[in-house]
UniProtKB/TrEMBL annotation:
Broad EC category: hydrolase
Xref: Gene3D superfamilies: CobE/GbiG C-terminal domain
Any one of the GO BP annotations: cobalamin biosynthetic process
Domain CobE/GbiG C-terminal: start-end pairs: 2-122
Recorded GO MF terms: cobalt-precorrin-5A acetaldehyde-lyase activity
Annotated Pfam families: CbiG_C
Protein's recorded name: Cobalt-precorrin 5A hydrolase
Lineage: Bacteria, Pseudomonadati, Pseudomonadota, Alphaproteobacteria, Hyphomicrobiales
Source species, domain of life: Bacteria
The entry's keywords: Hydrolase
EC number in record: 3.7.1.12
InterPro entries, per the entry: CbiG_hydrolase (IPR052553), CobE/GbiG_C (IPR002750), CobE/GbiG_C_sf (IPR036518)
């Protein structure tokens, strides 16, 4: 299972979110059809850009609760002090992807930034791009 984890600034557009997903996917041999779901922190559930991107891709949107986001935070690769202050994790996109892909998941692609959005890709154990 491949999961796209999303983070964004308030009001990020669907175009920003889709661009961030495309940027992350460009590092793999995968297309958007390989994504099983889109994941974001529960606090971002009202962000229209994220909701619309998941709908446009035809993938379920999983909202990761804070405790699961924090549990996955130790496995992230990148760090933003601003994000640590706001969410308690080094990378919202990476932690969201890892949490939604499962406890044994690994990052395929670290955080990519496009406009006001970020995307990271994670896979459940045993699956590689």
């Amino acid at each position: 299972m491949i999961v796209a984890g999303i983070g964004c600034r308030r009001g990020a557009s669907v175009a920003d979110v889709l661009s961030a997903i495309d940027a992350a996917l460009s590092e793999t041999a995968l297309g958007a059809e390989a994504l099983a779901l889109i994941a974001a922190p529960a606090e971002k559930g009202g962000e229209e850009g994220i909701v619309a991107a998941a709908a446009q891709l035809g993938r379920p949107l999983v909202l990761v609760p804070p405790e699961k986001l924090k549990a996955a935070g130790a496995r992230t690769l990148t760090r933003s002090e601003r994000v640590v202050a706001l969410f308690g994790v080094p990378s919202v996109a990476e932690a969201s992807a890892l949490a939604a892909a499962g406890d044994a998941s690994v990052l395929l692609v670290g955080r990519h930034i496009a406009g006001g959005a970020t995307c990271a890709l994670a896979t459940s154990a045993g699956q590689r791009a």
